[in-house]
Amino acid sequence: MTERIEGHGGELALAALRAYGVREMFTLSGGHVFPLYDAAHKTGFPLYDVRHEQSAVFAAEAVAKLQRRPGLAVLTAGPGVTNGISGLTSAYFNASPVLVMGGRAPQFRWGSGSLQEMDHLPLVAPVTKHAETVFSADDIPRAVAAALTTALTPHRGPVFLDFPLEAIFSTGDADLPAGPALDPVEADPDEVAKAAGLIAGAQRPVVIAGSDVYAGDAVAALRAAAEALDVPVFTNGMGRGALPPEHPLAFAKARRVALKGADVVVVVGTPLDFRLSFGDFGDATVVHIVDAPSQRATHVQPAVAPAGDLRAILTTLAGYTGDRADHTDWVAQLRTAEDAAKARDAEEMAAETDPIRPARVYGELRKVLARDAITIGDGGDFVSYAGRYLEPAQPGTWLDPGPYGCLGTGMGYAMGARVTHPDRQICVLMGDGAAGFSLMDVESLVRQKLPVVMVVGNNGIWGLEKHPMRAMYGYDVAADLQPELRYDQVVTALGGAGETVAKAADLGPALQRAFDAGVPYLVNVITDPADAYPRSSNLA
């Protein structure tokens, strides 16, 4: 029997949100959305506030990524919404099911110049799957349910709703939504069978698995398919950790060798974008497995591109019973290349040089990070080293900005990760450039007792810009920051703690103190500005 609910607009919205598994709200205070706060306060619904709206959206995205369910950000009208658009856009590129609810000036006097009167929809529509203004309280539960269903339907992504003042502050009644009921997208069985035959019959196949494998809860199916077909696996994005580093088919360092020698490249759950040479793998046959037909590449023509539920597709691949080639020698060849690369990396991660090389930072981090630690990359140059030297041991433990490459995710992602995993290590890896985007939200973490560790690679430059510009023009401009700036003192002033490290031998003890501190703690590492812009990275 359908349950009837009544209340003001905020109460109606919150009831619908709960039905879809939303369990917290990230926001920055604004009068246009007071009824949502009232509903949360009266029912004990967790509410976390930030110092910049982008952090609220990034926090909601972290929840959506890590928990595979909707994340919620509530933003006030006008500048509140526009400040959150970079977060919305990142969620759009990352296929994260985020709902942003915005306030809106009153409709009954629209055009009269009310405070923060602005039509948000033309701005957010290009970077959302659905954007709608809800004009009556009675219609709010319906709109919330429709938006969240759209957000959760593959290919997933963010949605937006805003509410004029008279709608959200008014009372109404409506049927309580039943919650998500999503039918899986079924792939063409002939395409899946063709993909299986290509992989099994290849002499030198390679799988590259991306974020949608995690988002689609297909990690176990990926492992089963890799093991059944004996195919080496590389990962990117939130696909990292899908196979633990010790798995005999898990590879990270030998990607260049693998892609140069492969005769079949299977890309699962990630686009054929700049991170994967736009799908150009030389003479190799390309199989592109995606979660929805909309994700099929249009700039290249794969041999086959099954589109549908990734768990079902990969499970079918695992059950393939046809003829297959022996991949033993190919896997052994890649293992030799992988081990050689790991040996080179081990030397770099143990470097005793002062100034400190970024590789040494990650060498020390590997000693203190737990297998289930959540590592968050927010930066360019410094974080590219993280992709190269850190190997997540479990799925759902790596967060980076994704293909949109937006800086400033760090504190929002940290908040969402800490809320999701209150008992795990949360470690944010930031360049000193990226630190300028969101470090003020350390105050939000301190005030709400959300401890995280921040490691800043401080080389005093925009590393991904300075060196290439000098190579191109013989000079650089707008690429310098204050050298050896005390970002740790900023965190201390905001109520956290931290220290600056300038010698490699001091790194290990400093990181241990950070993880033992129980408060937001920043380790400010003075790194060598000459050791930047690595030519190869596994961040992709």
Please summarize what this structure is.
The chain is an alpha/beta fold. Helices cover 39% and strands 16% of the residues.
What does this structure look like?
- Its cofactor is thiamine diphosphate.
- This protein is of the alpha/beta class.
- The protein is built from 22 helices and 18 strands.
- The strands form four sheets. Strands 3-2-4-5-7-6 form a six-stranded parallel sheet. Strands 14-13-15-16-18-17 form a six-stranded parallel sheet, with helices on both faces.
- The longest helix has 22 residues, at 328-349.
- The radius of gyration is 24 Å and the shape is globular.
- The termini are far apart.
Structural descriptors:
single chain; 540 residues; alpha/beta; six-stranded parallel β-sheet; 22 helices; 18 strands; globular; thiamine pyrophosphate; Thiamin_PyroP_enz_TPP-bd_dom; THDP-binding; DHS-like_NAD/FAD-binding_dom; magnesium ion binding
